[in-house]
Amino acid sequence: MKPLEDKPNTEPDIELGEVFMHIHSIGWYGLYSKSKNSQFILTWKEGYQENIKGEYRLIEKGKIIARGEIERPNAGKVANNGTFIFNDWMFGDNLQGTFLAFSKSGQINIYHLFSANFHCNGLSGDGKFAICQLAASDTTDSQTMAFFNLENNIMLWQKKPETGFADSIEIDSENQIIKLILGDNDEFCYSFNGEFLDDFKWYQYRIQNGSGYELLEIVDNKLKAQAGILNKGEGQEILDILQIAVKRFSQQPYYQAIGYRKMGEIYERLGDIEKTILNYEIAIKLNPAVGVKKKLALLKPSSPQAIPTSKLPPYSINEFIPNSIRFLSEEKSIPPGHAPRGIYSHIIHYEDSSLYIKNHYNDSELQTGSSTITYLTNFGDFLKSEDLDHLVYRFARSRNSGCFVALSYNLKLYLYSPEFDRLADSDISKGVDERGEIHCLGISNDGNTILYSKKSTLFQLDNKLNVIKSWQSPKESSEPIILEKAHEFEINDITFEIELEYDVSEMDDWICSIEIPKNIDAIYLGYYSGKFCLLYSFGLIKRIYNCNDAIREIKEIGRYIYLITYEGIDILFDAKFLKRLDLHEYIGPGKFLNANYMEKVIVINNKPHLELFTLDNKRIADIEFRDSIAGVFFHEDKLKVVTPKKIFIFSIEYPNVS
Fold it and tell me: Is the pLDDT assigned to residue 204 strictly greater than 70?
């Protein structure tokens, strides 16, 4: 191939097609790209042999202003200032390529060799930034993208994108956003620092468009994150994903069996043995070697390995303190589908009542659906039930007014009266990347102030759901900061004075639990670091205690405060540490979700066991039930246990607790 003899600043006659362009005067025919302002055209054609390199031409307003040779130029792009880039695929069989960036005059400003082939690239309209994405290889460059500053001619960073291979990439210099575009119009954004900004959007996209393999991967990651802990809402979300996965494996029974096995395992963790058996049976039919035969034999009553249920008593009591548990009566259980029987997204025990929330999902993305809220007495008797026209992700009820606030999965906040009249609603999704950032929801005792946390920030709203104030958790200093002026507050006409200190971590410490005290105009805050604090007047904070483990829940019962962590339960009396219950020996980590916290006893629902403890860490008894436990209620000295067939009532004799 003879080199072309055109010179800079010649005026060629140009004919542009959809993809290719023709410069008649010099016999040029090649691919082309135009700048957004249409002032520049970059055209190129690829080399075919090691001794015949490819070539390019840069044209400004109809004149050739730069030309050069590149081995195998591809994916050329030109900016509004004439800066242009190429992916050079290079000659040879090695997995490698060179990213090239040029000034308007044709000077090479960036020459970066990668040990992987190219996938695509992008150039900002102003010519200041560029990016390239690489294909798979057996090196550290495999499937990464590299971001370049073309003003300083340096690579800023290189990482493997969460969203995989893009069909195209756009760079927005003004807003400092990199957009990876999948398909025709699905955009996923990264910051100029390489931070992925669309986690939740990507999660939804993968559920809608991902293969069965991807969905199983999502499920495995969720289960790892929820090791030992799985509430009803999280379990249902995983089950919905698995239902989609088995449909996408319609021609692959091996992987369908894995999906049904996982569904059975989820139902087993949620205590629904009937559905556990059903899914294990489907899995075995699809693949007899799926690995659940022994599990099924132990669960299925008809199996010869299973003990005949007719010969088993309905429960057994193992007393650690003699004569502490006495059976009183039994009666026929409530019908299925009535609280507490069934799978519920939320179960909340208050001092005066118990509340059961059931979500009815319309789609696997948890965006649409409805919910049912059922109120029971604190001893499990039905009070009322109402339906809401949205799903419930977070929930809180006012201690005195009876008003309640609910947050849907699409981060819309609703305020309701005790009669379930909707008083206000507000969208709080702006600036939230993933709904898990909204970890806590609370409402004041009078129902006029609503609280929610986003990471380490607490927001205060009025009863119209308008934001009044926000408060950012202070960062940890090496020494506590003592305020010069003491803070006064009043309880029952008695004035107290305390000295306040700021004592928090160097990095943002997320708020993971809140509770509104009965008698103090303040807020209890529990942090991931384990700090337990009292926040006064939305700005002054006093650290009371440190559990050194994430505080998942705070319960105030009388003068007792219960701090539930992943390691156990810390009990405070009059805001001072009293006892720590480390229950791993009995029930394992992460199983304190369904518990009743009383002034004399703690009842832990560790299905099919009930574990009873005194406040000084004495184990009272372990009651094991033959049927699954649907609900547990406690009032005065009576314990009520609801199972699918029977309701059992026991009395409890308390040992003396100092």
Answer: yes
C-alpha 517, offset from chain centre: 28
Query: Which among 409, 462, 400 has a CA at the least distance from the CA of 432?
Result: 409
User: Is 132 a residue whose pLDDT tops 80?
Assistant: yes
**305 and 380 housed in the same domain:** no
C-alpha 512/C-alpha 272 separation (Å) is 29
Considering the domain boundaries, does residue 6 fall inside one? no
Q: What percent of the chain has pLDDT over 70?
A: 85
Those residues with Cβ within 8 angstroms of residue 553's Cβ, 6 or more apart along the chain or in another chain: 513, 526, 562, 563, 564
DSSP 8-class letter at 454: E
Q: What share of the chain is helix, strand, coil (3-state, %, to 5)?
A: 15, 45, 45
Q: Quickly list DSSP for 520-544.
A: SSEEEEEETTSEEEEEETTTEEEEE
Handedness of CA 226, 231, 236, 237 (dihedral sign): negative
Q: Give CA–CA dist 625/621, Å, rounded.
A: 13
Largest CA distance in the chain: 106
Assess if residue 454 is contained within a domain: yes
| Residue predicted with more confidence, 593 or 163 | 163
- Kindly state whether residue 81 falls inside one of the protein's structural domains: yes
**Sheet hosting strand 54-60, strand order edge to edge:** 14-16, 20-23, 28-34, 40-45, 54-60, 63-70
Give the pLDDT confidence score for residue 594 in this predicted structure.
56
Q: Are residues 260 and 329 in the same domain?
A: no
| Residue 102 resides in a domain | yes
Burial (0-12, 13-18, 19+ Cβ within 10 Å), 17: exposed
Q: What's the pLDDT at 364? A: 64
Instruction: Print the domain residue range for 656.
Output: 313-333+594-658
Q: What is the mean pLDDT of residues 332-341?
A: 84
What distance in Å separates the CA atoms of residue 309 and residue 625, rounded to the nearest whole number? 12
Average pLDDT, the chain: 83
User: Are residues 84 and 184 both part of a single domain?
Assistant: yes
**Angle, nearest 10°, between helix axes 212-225 and 199-209?**
140
| Most confident of the following: 473-487, 583-597, 598-612 | 598-612
Query: Looking at the structure, do residues 302 and 317 belong to the same domain, yes or no?
Result: no
Q: Which residue has the higher pLDDT, 298 or 46?
A: 46
Q: Which residues of 419-456 are buried (b: 16+ CB within 10 A; e: fewer)?
A: eeeeebeeebeeeeeebebbbbbbbbeebebbbbbbbb
Helix H or strand E segment including 427: strand 422-427
43 and 171 both lie in a single domain: yes
Q: Is 313 exposed, middle or buried (0-12, 13-18, 19+ CB in 10 A)?
A: exposed
Cβ neighbour number for residue 52 with a 10 Å cutoff? 15
Same domain membership, residue 599 and residue 589: no
- Least reliable range by pLDDT among 101-105, 527-531, 628-632: 628-632
Of 216 and 634, more confident: 216
What are φ and ψ of residue 593, in 5° steps?
-70, -45
pTM above 0.85?
A: no
Same domain, 243 and 164: no
In terms of residues, how long is the chain?
A: 658
496-526 pLDDT, tens digit each? 344 333 333 334 688 989 998 877 778 999 9
Alpha carbons 45 and 27: distance in angstroms, whole number: 12
